[in-house]
Every structure is written in C-alpha cells, then in structure tokens.
Amino acid sequence: MGKNANLVEVVFKGERRAVYRNRAELDINKGDFVVVEAERGKEMGEVSLAGGLVRLKRGKGEAKNVIRIALPEDLKLYEDLKAKADEAFKTCHNKITEHKLDMKLVDAEVQFDSSKMTFFFTASQRIDFRELVKDLAALYRTRIELRQIGVRDEAKRIGGCGICGKKQCCSAFLEEFEQITTQMAKDQMLSLNPTKISGNCGRLLCCLRYEQDRYCEVSAHFPAMGSSVVIEGKTGLVNYINIFKELGQVRFEDGTFEWFPVETFKTGKRIEVVEHAEKTE
C-alpha cells in the first residue's frame, strides 16, 4: 500500500478543501460523505479524491482524521444544518441592515456539531461588528465567527462558470490563489480588454498563470515583437510568434509574410537581428 493510500481529500460548503487521514482504513470512495475531525468538534463533507491521487502539502501540518463514513442520521442532520445556515444568513443580513454596517454578507455555515456558526463577508474597510456578534450569539447560543474575505474568495464560495464555459478553477480545484499580473496577458499576446481577461470576481483570470512559464521559455528564443531582422539577405519585421508551433512570422519589406521555425531565430543560425523595438507596456 502506497504512503498516500490512506489519505482522502474532502470538500466542504464553499468549495473549501482539506486532506484527512483514513487511519481506520475505511472503504472510502470519491463521492462518499464522511465525518471528520475539526479544530474544535466535528465537520462533515464530501470526498473529492481518495487514495494515491491525494498529496499532503508541505507546511500544512499533520492532517486530521476521518472519524466515520456518514450514517443515514448524519446525512439527515447535514441537510437540516444547511437549512439552518440559510435561515441564519437571512437573519444576519437583516441585522447588518439594522446596525447600518457597510459590509456585504456572502455566505453562512453551521459546523456539523453546531459548536460554531461562521458568517463570511466582504467589505472595503475594517468593520466594527462587535454588536452584531453579540446579537447573533444571543440568538443562536453558539460560538459566532465573522470572517472577512476577498472578492476572489467570494467568487469561489458562490461558484459559477468561467468564460471558457467550465466550472471556475477556484471552485473546481484551486486550493490557494497565486499572484496574477497584467504582464502575463501581455506575454501571451492577449487583448487587454478587462472583459476578456477577468473572471467573475473582477480580478485577472487565474488561468493566465497556467501557461506563463511555457510562453516565457519559448519567447526567449525569439527576437522581440517588432524587431527588425535579416534572414538570408532579406530585411523584415517580426510580426507574430506562434508559441504552440514554435514559429515566428516575419513581414518583409516587399510586403510578403513568411513563417520560420524557432531554430532560425536562435543565436548562430541564419538570422541577424538588426535592432530591437521596445516592448509596449
């Protein structure tokens, strides 16, 4: 049995994911609901990965344990708690209006053992919600946590489809958000139209990072776009670079276009770069 055979990944409400150890060697499969250890108490979620596909991430500490595969009564309680969370969301929203707080409520969760209720919100600034917490604690008689999140986390919790037509990456599999920059879109020769390179969160698409290393690797073998080059005695400008086919298109002085493989542009080949045009920022 492999070293990761007793690991399972569990997804909770809001697409929150965590890895747990199946120390009891239960027969757990993808799609099963399981009860697991929480920081305080218990939680319940759906198994999204099981066995050798699961990896423990370094720096995450020791994984907590799976307690059991969900029983029928667990599933019934799980549905009841989701209904309770929906009701709590409405109540909290009304309380926010009552206290005139400048915050947007995004979601609400009730921990499986009802030991905690968590309310997620976004806000443009720091919010003094102490009176709100007091009202909610008095009403629900449990530990209340209000957690401020960013717009990317909001999109992940709400879910939806990206412009590609598939489920948002953040909701489907991303565990952490990495920095995305406009330079990545420039490197990939994409239109800088915000509606084309932004996700539902309004931030730059997470998928801009996926192929960035490959674009940089291949582009390094080509002159800059707009550079003047001489190939076999003919002068032209680098007009376009096809990263996937590793071809560069040159527009010659006589108005003709021709494609050349990346080897043509590498040092010592048939090309002499006359000058480099500055990249447009």
Descriptive overview:
The chain is of the alpha+beta class. It has 8 helices and 13 strands. The relative contact order is 0.08.
**Nearest-angstrom radius of gyration?**
27 Å
Supply the number of helical segments. Answer: 8
What percent of the residues sit in helical stretches (DSSP H or I)?
25-40%
Q: Strand order, biggest sheet?
A: 1-2-5-3-4
Global mean pLDDT: 88
Class computed from helices, strands and strand pairing: alpha+beta
- DSSP summary, beta strand count: 13
Instruction: State the major sheet.
Output: 5 strands, mixed, barrel
**Pattern of helices and strands:** EEEEEHEEHEHHHHHEEEEHE
Proportion of beta-strand residues: 25-35%
Distance between the termini: 53 Å
What are the low-pLDDT stretches, counting only 5+ consecutive residues below 50? Answer: none
- From the spread of the alpha carbons, the general shape counts as elongated
In short:
Helices cover 26% and strands 28% of the residues. It has 8 helices and 13 strands. The chain has helices at residues 72-98, 130-140, 151-158, 169-172, 182-187, 194-197, 212-219, 262-265, and strands at 7-11, 17-21, 33-37, 42-50, 64-69, 104-110, 116-122, 143-148, 228-231, 234-242, 247-252, 257-261, 271-275.
